[in-house]
# Entry
Amino acid sequence: MDALVAPVSRSEEPSVERLSRLAGPDMAEVDALIRARMDSPVPVIPALAEHLIAAGGKRLRPLLTVAAARLAGARGGGHLKLAAAVEFIHTATLLHDDVVDGSERRRGKVAAHLIWGAASSVLVGDFLFARAFELMVETGSLPALGILARASRVIAEGEVMQLTDSHDLNLSQALYLQIITAKTAELFAAAAEAGAVAAEAPTAEIAGLRDYGLKLGLAFQLVDDALDYGGVSERLGKDAGDDFREGKATLPLILAVARSGPKERAFWTRTIETQDQHPEDFKRAREIVLETGALESTIAFAHEHAEAAKAALQRFSPGPWREALCDLADFAVARAA
Amino acid sequence: MDALVAPVSRSEEPSVERLSRLAGPDMAEVDALIRARMDSPVPVIPALAEHLIAAGGKRLRPLLTVAAARLAGARGGGHLKLAAAVEFIHTATLLHDDVVDGSERRRGKVAAHLIWGAASSVLVGDFLFARAFELMVETGSLPALGILARASRVIAEGEVMQLTDSHDLNLSQALYLQIITAKTAELFAAAAEAGAVAAEAPTAEIAGLRDYGLKLGLAFQLVDDALDYGGVSERLGKDAGDDFREGKATLPLILAVARSGPKERAFWTRTIETQDQHPEDFKRAREIVLETGALESTIAFAHEHAEAAKAALQRFSPGPWREALCDLADFAVARAA
# Structure
């Protein structure tokens, strides 16, 4: 398969193109598995799951499982069921998150709980979570099961932490990192680690791929949090401002607050702590986040993690899979440009 | 240990006394495991879990895992972690159910979601569910994992089914049975089956214990549904009437509707379908359920299942564990007297 992949110059705009192409055949099988296993004789279940899963997104996490398995030399197909399980766990957490946050949109569509009700979203999340474990049992890999069970538990802990602490203006950078590690980076790490385990990779390679996933997940989340303040460019994503409006203390906000004078502090206290917001407040929030350099620092921090992710792959011989995973790390941060 | 157990005459009032005594030492270890493994550095998690788990109840499901394992000759302690996992799965489903149903009380206490919020209940449910799988991975038994993963999925399907169909006055008896099998009996069946698997019992014994659990679970649910209409005695439990008020089509209602004349039908249509209820309606509902013999039929049906549960144990040699499990089946239905 490698021979089919044209060399791609590193100077091009970073994208997941090369990775998607390389992983295409595996991901087609993962997709078929996802569709087959989200089925149920209870009609609401596939309908609701389809709504979210068909909306797609980049399927980053299962892609990570596949790529890690292939980079580690997987020959069989054991990693495919694990990849589908990873996507089910992710989808279950999205369903529960949207209920918990009262989010109105997800992947460009109306959030499932607004169509089928919160009760169905909770229960279909439970269904997908259980299905993930059924798929993992079928692979027969207890270590992979352990990795993804632990990740699922850590994600729940991260979500509860976020729920408890997210409106705290003085949330420390350390606690913020702990939260995004648990709620986002852990599943990236576990997805890559499980893929390596499925490939029966040596311990050091498993650890390297876990580390890659962890750093990549942090880079992604940091950039997402930066983009929620509109990034550094003038062009604002249409969903920018959600974190501000929900009063979530993410790194751009935490750094901006720390670097704010008394006048700006009063602004943050009113808008975030008291949650007394007016329509024009986000514009002002974005200005402060830019003026204080908080956004730039957040993005620089994301770059550090993307570089650390790539460094974690240095133990592997050069080749198309390693290059594709490096592209992915570059892509994670290039989105902020 | 058997020698310590005094013979109990079958003419005494059925109770779980003998079973609790026999399983006491194992259950003390299960309890310690539950307490140790519901802990988390995120304070809300043990606080919320403690609220529900300390309230206790009879710990029927883990008791079933322990008893099945012992009846099947378990020597080691592998079944203890499975029993704790079973209780975690059950607790997770209770947390999610109470959010889904908007229930106000659970185990005689204010429901957790009314204290910590629905979001925390959903996420702590997820935590306990993941913890259950971590515990199962530690036992190293893939077959037990498969049994409990499947059960978790079937429970979610049952809950969604109930959500969709429960206000249907013409819900068929078959669909009602399908719902209570999925949402209640499946976990009883899986709890017993997993215990037998942990004891490395022969296939026929595993199947027998699964069948026992399934029939026992159905007997329990049928009696619960009968008790929700106050049972046959005059004495009404203080929580009686919940199903009626929520408009849940359970067997007493389904049978009463089928046996109702036009006047009673109009009453059901108003109170259940239209959900237009007045305070005195439950008294009238109970009268119809009694007059039509619907309550008696429900309890008779529960008795059939309790007998079938006991019959499923006939392949085992007589002994204290078998007797104790027979007591449990008798106890399940004696509650309706």
